[in-house]
Write a structure and sequence with these properties.
Number of strands: 5
Number of helices: 8
Helix content: 40-55%
Shape: rod-shaped
Structural class: alpha+beta
């Protein structure tokens, strides 16, 4: 699911009101309801709101269910600890960090990662990261992850099938090229056997082997 700039601004506005609320404020209660709807109902993918220092500021229900954690257990932790089980931020060596790229350019950034779920099973995800900037500067980023594991596995299956089909075509070609000279071997070996005297047992035995093996 693509999220354009206006939608990312909606996340920003809702989060700022949500973060700066005062208890009992009707404006906050309304904004809080809208924010939760945006986070948990309008967006079907996993959503993280991340600070520039990689700490998680918020997460939607879909992501919490995926990693098997409660919201209070995930807030304040580093994103790479939760999604990758890494001890340090993602790097170019293993996978580009979308947060780093987004904060460096202040533009949306997309990439693919392998995340771990609550059972430590690998899930291929397509990540879109969007900067959150306010009047006082950079707030952080919104990271949306779409599970593409099924697509990746299907693509690999199709590639494997194509490899097997290629091997089949190659085998058929090789068999055809081998069958032609073997046909000639069979033909002339059969002629030689018919012309070999019955008292020449050794030669007839050799020709029998040629016919049998061919």
């Amino acid at each position: 699911r693509a999220m354009d700039y206006q939608t990312s601004r909606l996340f920003l506005n809702m989060y700022r009101i949500y973060d700066d609320h005062k208890e009992g404020d009707q404006r906050f209660l309304q904004a809080n309801s809208i924010y939760k709807i945006v986070m948990n109902d309008l967006v079907n993918e996993d959503v993280l709101v991340i600070a520039p220092n990689h700490q998680i500021m918020d997460a939607n229900d879909a992501l919490l269910k995926k990693v098997g954690l409660r919201r209070e257990e995930i807030i304040g932790r580093n994103c790479y600890e939760v999604t990758h089980r890494y001890g340090c931020p993602c790097s170019e060596e293993n996978c580009p960090c979308p947060l780093k790229e987004t904060l460096a350019t202040l533009k949306p950034f997309s990439t693919t990662h392998i995340h771990l779920d609550k059972d430590n099973s690998e899930r291929h995800v397509s990540i879109s990261c969007y900067p959150l900037t306010g009047p006082d500067g950079l707030i952080g980023a919104v990271e949306i992850s779409k599970d593409i594991t099924r697509d990746i596995l299907m693509q690999r299956s199709l590639m494997q099938q194509e490899k097997l089909a290629s091997i089949g075509r190659l085998s058929a070609g090789v068999a055809h090229e081998i069958n032609n000279p073997l046909g000639s071997v069979l033909l002339y070996a059969d002629i030689l056997r018919k012309e070999t005297p019955t008292d020449n047992a050794q030669q007839r035995e050799d020709l029998d082997m040629i016919l049998r093996e061919a």
